[in-house]
Amino acid sequence: MKKVVGIESLLAWRRQRAEAEAPPAPSGAHLLKLVQPWWEMWPDRFAASVRRLAAVQLSYGYAMAHPPHGHSGHPVAALISREQDGDQEAPARILYVSVRDGRLRLRFQLAPIPRSDRVYDVTFISETGLRPILSASADLSGEDEYRLDVELPSDLAAAWQSLKVTDPMPFRFILRPADSN
Amino acid sequence: MDLEKHPTVPRPAPFHDGSSSVQHTQTTWPDAWLINAVRREPPDEEALDALVERYWKPLYARCRVLTLDSEKARDLAQEAWLRVLRARTSLQPEGNFHAYIMTVATNLWRDNARAAVRAGPAADNRLASLEAPFINDGDESIALGSFIADPHTLSVDDQLLLEMDLDEALSRLEPRLRDVLVSRYVGGESAAEIGQRYGRSEQAITGWIREAIRQMKINLGEHDFASHEERGDR
Predict the structure, then answer these.
(1) Domain boundaries, position B56
(2) Which candidate, A148, B49, B89, B216, has a CA 20 to 30 Å from the CA of A132?
(3) Entry pTM
(4) Contacts of B182 in chain A (CB under 8 A)
(5) Per-residue pLDDT for B232 more than 70?
């Protein structure tokens, strides 16, 4: 007579088989290398980008020349850092910002540039100390809008909790095309 | 399960007995010590090795059952570790690390599934909508009934066939139902715990699990597992 089992035993059996076929675990060194931020891997390049970013002055004239659509706030100094072409200034305008449940949801628009990319790795540089404080991926959404959604460290989540789109942003951007990493 | 935030368990002093290697010592450390060592700057690579090794197989297995693809499972498991490492300074050594990393992997998989839905038909791993309503025929009598041959009684070849059929049946479940089924019966989470993740009541999750089982029965039934034992063509 055939012995039969239920879904629980069946899935437990499947899990055991999956465990048995697991590839070797990656080494800790390999994982740590993968999470090493670019500013630690190329400190000189990062320092040069930050120097240039710090020198960017966003003028009232820029804001007037690039009227926002809908409710949006101050421009944010941004630099596009490309492997071959070097750094290019491309001020961003925040269209939406929300910090809820420890996540930052942000939409921004870049000033018109000759060449834009579908995905940028966005490094948030603190406005005050010019230090890297956050890294996230932003996807092109629609014509010229980028969106990002990222979990925040608890200190930033607390500090940015009440941030509104009309507030001056406490950060600047270094944008790196995702395929250049 | 809140593993992040409060570091309280100190990392023990390095163990020197003149014979045991550090690596060997760290494999015997409890999670809290390993996590504390990984939280440091720079992180202790050997402690990380031990922690990864300890959870790699169950993590991979969970990812394998969710993604139903060995390559994707490996990538998902590795990505879960990367997420954990990026947030390592806020890890809570006394938390339930096993539950934590499984949840990280599950959430990543759910995010990927949502992205695939947004990407539409062009996505290479398009999945049914996470929020799509399922048909609940009100059959409250569905339980964990016995409906399939015990895999351990099957031949090696038939076990392989059953594995493929089971993966196929799971692949037909929409991601939400696959997740709750796997979380409940592979991860051992309660309906209430799953409900917390989804922001739904325990009762709602129980209904989802029941629906997942109902669909699995239908999917598996189409394959006539009984015939595996009886087929002479292997």
Answers:
(1) 22-122
(2) B49
(3) 0.70
(4) 11
(5) no
